[in-house]
Amino acid sequence: MDFEQTILIVDDEKIGRKVLNDLLKGEAKIVLAKNGEQCLEKARDCQPDLILLDIILPDIDGFQVLERLKQSPATQHIPVIFITALNNYADECKGFSLGARDYIQKPFHPDIVNARVLTHLRLKEHVEKNQRQEKALQASELANELKDQCLSIISHELRTPMNGVFGALHLLDDEVTTEDAKKYLASAHCSAQDMMNLVDSMLYFFELQSDKLVLDKRPFRLQQLLTDVESRLMQCAAHKQLSASVTSNLPVNRVYRADSQRISVILHNLLDNAVKFTQTGTVKLLVDEQTTTGSDPDVVLEFKITDSGIGISAEQFPKIFEAFTQTDAFFSRRFEGMGIGLAVCKRLVDLMNGKISVDSTPDQGSCFTVSIPMSRVSVSDFNDSPSSEVTPDLARVLTKDSRVLIVEDNPVNLMMLQGMVKRLGVSVETVQDGAAAVEFFQNNPVDLILMDCQMPVMSGFEATRHIRACSAKGENVPIIAVTANAMSGDRERCFASGMNDYLKKPVRKEDIAQCIRHWLPLPERKTSN
C-alpha cells in the first residue's frame, strides 16, 4: 500500500519498535531506527512527517536528538512526539521546552497513541496545505504586481513615441496647403489613431482583467465630450467617404458627474467599429437623457450608435462582447482588429452599472445602445471647480510676457511640445530633467510648467514637490502633468504630488492650448518673481 505520509519510529528495544510498527502501519509508511544517530540520518534522508522518539537510547538520549533535529534547517520542521517510560514531570517539561509536540508515557494504550499520531499527522497536513496556499497567494500577488508594472511600462513606452507622431501630425496641419498633401496627412492621422486605439484597448482590457481599473467620477461638460468624439469620428468617416453625425437632444451647457474619460473610450470603440464595418452610407451618434425618479444617480444618459454597415446575425449576439471575437472567420480576415473593443466596452459599462445592447440586421446595419446612470451637476458649481475641464477663455490672447517652462527628457516630445506652445504666442523655455527644472525655476521667472513625470536624475513628482517648497512663488505656479503614465491611479498620483492638472500622452495641440489658457495667470494676477 502506498502512503502519502511517513512516520519514523525510534526505539532501542526491538519489541518497542514492533509494537508501534504494528499499531501504525495501516496509517502511514513506517521507517525504523534503533538509536539517535540512525534517527538523525533517516530524518535527513526520508523527511518523515512525524517522529516517535524514545528518550532513553544507547548512544545519545532523545533530548539531544531533538536538539540536533531542531538545529538543522533540513529537519527542524518535523514534529516530534516523545514516547518514553520516563514519567518525571521535569522530563516532560524539558521535552516540551526543546520543541516536542506531544509526550506519551509507557505503558501506553494503543487507542491513545493512534489518536494522537493521527491528530498530529492531520495537523501537519493542514499546516502544509495552508503554507502551500500562502505561497501560491504570494506568487499570485507577485505575478499581478509584475503584470501591473509591465502594463505601466508598456503604456509609457508605447505612448511616448506615439506622442511624437501625433505632435508632428498636429503641427503639420497648419503647414500643409495642397489638397493631395491634406489627404495624405488625414490618412496618417487615421492610421496613428488606429494604432493608439489598439494600444488603449489592449491596456484597458488587461487592466480590467486584473480588476485594477478604478472609475474616476468627476464633473464634465457633455458638449465638450461630444465635440472631441465628433472630431475623431468626422476625420475617420471622411477617410472612407462616409456620412457621419453627432446629435444631442440636450442643452449644450449640461454638466454631469461620471467617468467621462471611460465614457469617451466606450464611444470611440463603438464608433470606430461602426466606421470599420461600414463600406457605404452613414454612421450616427444620438445622445439623450432619461430621468429616474427617487434614485441616485438621478439620470441615465443614453448613447445610440447606428450604422449602415454589414450588420450582425442574431446567432452572433451572445458572442460579440467576448474578447478576441469578431462575427466570423471571414470577417476576421476581411476586417482588422484584435477583437477586444466590444469586450472592453462591456466591462466598462458593467463597471459603471450601466447597460449595453445591440440590435442588428445582416447587410442593413447595427444599432448599439449604451445607457449609463450618472448625476447631473449645476453649471455654477462646475464653474467653481479648479479643473481643466472648465471651459477656458478661448478668445484670450496670450503674449510673450508669459513664460512657459517645458520639462521633458525625450527630444522628440520636447520638440513637439515646444512647437505647440510657441504657436500660442508665449515665451518657451525647456529643460530635460526634474533637477534642472527646480534650478531653473529658482533662478528665473516662470508662469506655468508643463511637467513630464518619468525622467532621469529627478522625476516630475519629486521636482513638483521641490518647487512647491519654494515659498509663495512655488506654491502658486501652475504645474501641468504631460505624461505617458496613463494607468489607473496615475492621474491621482500627479495631483498628490502637487500638480494642478493632468494631460495624457499623446496630447493634441488643442488640449495644450486649452490647458494653458485656463491655467496661465492673467497679467494683473501673476505672482511676483
From TrEMBL:
GO molecular function: phosphorelay sensor kinase activity
SMART domains: HATPase_c, HisKA, REC
Record's catalysed reaction(s): ATP + protein L-histidine = ADP + protein N-phospho-L-histidine
Top-level class of the enzyme under EC nomenclature: transferase
Modified residues (4-aspartylphosphate): D54, D452
CDD domains for the chain: HATPase_EvgS-ArcB-TorS-like, HisKA, REC_hyHK_CKI1_RcsC-like
InterPro entries, per the entry: CheY-like_superfamily, HATPase_C_sf, HATPase_dom, His_kinase_dom, HisK_dim/P_dom, HisK_dim/P_sf, Sig_transdc_His_kin-like_C, Sig_transdc_resp-reg_receiver
Domain Response regulatory span(s) in chain numbering: 6-121, 403-520
EC number: 2.7.13.3
Keyword field: Kinase, Phosphoprotein, Transferase, Two-component regulatory system
This protein's name: histidine kinase
